[in-house]
């Protein structure tokens, strides 16, 4: 992959990393505020159908998802530093630029991504 293309993807990844880092910090703060909200009666069991609990569960799920993507972005930045960016980490073929434009942190070509996804579901 040409150096200028790698630099373009690196800038894209750095911007995404900055956005995700801010979002993760915001969600962590919101979860902490929800957990320590005034008026919470901590010694009473909370029914799973409780709306506040559902909201907290959603925030925690979003937080986990954002942290997973942030980890993938960091790994992609590491591949750039190693000179392996744009190379499928499974089959070693070149990842199509259309795929990298859509998912710049992807470690897999389309074919391998489908295979990996089928193994995890």
Characterization of the model:
The protein is mainly α and 121 residues long. It has helices at 3-35, 51-82, 97-102, 110-120.
Number of β-strand runs:
0
Helix content: 55-70%
- Poorly predicted segments: none
Total of helices: 4
Element order, helices and strands? HHHH
N-to-C CA distance: 32 Å
Main sheet makeup: none
Structural class assignment: mainly alpha
Radius of gyration: 19 Å
Q: What percent strand? A: under 5%
What form results from the Cα inertia axes? flat
Overall mean pLDDT stands at 87
Q: Summary?
A:
Helices cover 68% and strands 0% of the residues.
Task: Give the SSE layout.
Elements: H1 3-35, H2 51-82, H3 97-102, H4 110-120
Question: Any descriptors?
Answer:
121 residues, mainly alpha, 68% helix, 0% strand, flat
């Amino acid at each position: 992959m040409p150096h200028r293309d790698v630099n373009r993807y690196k800038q894209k990844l750095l911007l995404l990393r900055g956005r995700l880092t801010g979002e993760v910090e915001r969600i962590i703060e919101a979860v902490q505020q929800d957990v320590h909200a005034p008026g919470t009666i901590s010694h009473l069991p909370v029914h799973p159908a409780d709306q506040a609990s559902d909201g907290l569960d959603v925030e925690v799920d979003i937080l986990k998802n954002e942290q997973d993507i942030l980890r993938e972005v960091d790994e992609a930045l590491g591949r750039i530093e190693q000179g392996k960016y744009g190379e499928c980490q499974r089959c070693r073929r070149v990842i199509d630029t259309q795929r990298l434009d859509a998912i710049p942190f992807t470690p897999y070509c389309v074919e391998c991504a489908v295979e990996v996804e089928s193994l995890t579901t």
